[in-house]
């Protein structure tokens, strides 16, 4: 008959705890690696050095431990055994020939054959045990061997003279004192092993560090070229794929991608230029026909529509072209702010500007001037007071434009950057607008690797924040 074993409540509790413990292991492992990644270097060169150095240190630590624990201790024990064996032989000779006057022959044999300097002292009490050194492997092994082979009261001093060990053994009616060279009882050449280990490690690092630097340099060059292309700057003239095969493949793929993008931009610009030329011809023909036919009242509205169409066509062509073909150069903010001051005077607007840092920035001059012109012109159109603050430092340019105009609702601030968007409230575009000003401005900022953000202004209107690498 088959029987079943019932599970006890304690077993169920233990099983539940085990399951919870197993579930907690991956979370703890993730937290551990998150903590490690927080303190790990962020650059590839430093991480590569750690990949090379960490296994080397680990391997040498294991070797050093094995050597200290096995080889060094074994050699020291054998040397101590041989030394104590010699001392035990001297003890046997002294006890075998107790009537010899000064034990001159025994002292001579010990010095010539065993390289021991011995003395026979009066039967005074042995000195008190001294403090043990921090690293007491010699004291432990030597004491153990004397106890095992001689089995007499003894006293040893391994702390005094660094090259000499003193051993005293209590005999009947006398004390045997022996001076032994430390190298006879102790493996004192360990530093040679450590020097070789550290020296070879330094040689390997001297080879590995330049090699790693040469392998990582092509990656850094590729990153700089990609960053320059992302900012709309020309690619370095000396850039060419180098390094390992994977890095070369990435370099060639980047060059091909860049060529495809530039070719598409050229084709788009050429197509739009042709379309613009054809449409301009048609619009000019419309204007001529309107001028020759009908009264002014009949043709005025149609003429205004044609002007709007031409304005929209020019704006769209400028937006699609995006000034992408312009080379990067120096742009002087102080000179541009002076021009804005003249424009503000003509428009009867109050303008204040401030500049912190170098006035010269490295951007595409005409495109960046158009960016600022679109944003500042938008502020001039809807506000009476405009403040411009520029801060150039640490590789970036931050331009803040504040005005006291009606502003833009928060939910519509991203919407106004879309092409041909015209707001029905607040900052509505005038009749000549095309809704492309902010779209072109953001397109230029992003082509430089930056962006434009809108926010509330302390003046009560709109704040435009332009940030680009420079």
Task: Spell out the blueprint of helices and strands.
Layout: H1 9-39, H2 44-96, H3 104-113, E1 117-121, H4 137-149, E2 154-157, E3 164-171, E4 174-181, H5 182-185, H6 190-230, H7 245-292, H8 296-321, E5 329-332, H9 333-347, E6 350-357, E7 360-363, H10 365-382, E8 385-393, E9 396-403, H11 437-447, E10 451-456, E11 462-469
Parallel strand pairs: 6-8
Antiparallel strand pairs: 1-4, 2-3, 3-4, 5-7, 8-9, 9-11, 10-11
Helix pairs in contact: 2-4, 2-6, 6-7, 7-8, 9-10, 10-11
Strand content: 15-25%
How many E strands?
11
Radius of gyration: 45 Å
Order of strands across the widest beta sheet? 6-8-9-11-10
Give average pLDDT, whole number.
Answer: 80
* Straight-line N-to-C gap: 87 Å
Question: What can you tell me about this protein's structure?
Answer:
The structure is a single chain. With 470 residues, the protein is an alpha+beta fold. Helix content is 57%, strand content 15%. It has helices at residues 9-39, 44-96, 104-113, 137-149, 182-185, 190-230, 245-292, 296-321, 333-347, 365-382, 437-447; strands at 117-121, 154-157, 164-171, 174-181, 329-332, 350-357, 360-363, 385-393, 396-403, 451-456, 462-469. The strands form three sheets. It has a five-stranded mixed beta sheet with strand order 6-8-9-11-10, covered by helices on one side. Strand 10 (451-456) and strand 11 form a beta hairpin. Helix 7 packs antiparallel against helix 8 (296-321) and helix 10 (365-382) runs antiparallel to helix 11 (437-447). It starts with 8 loop residues before the first helix and ends with a strand. The relative contact order is 0.06. Mean pLDDT is 80; it is low at 1-6 and 424-432.
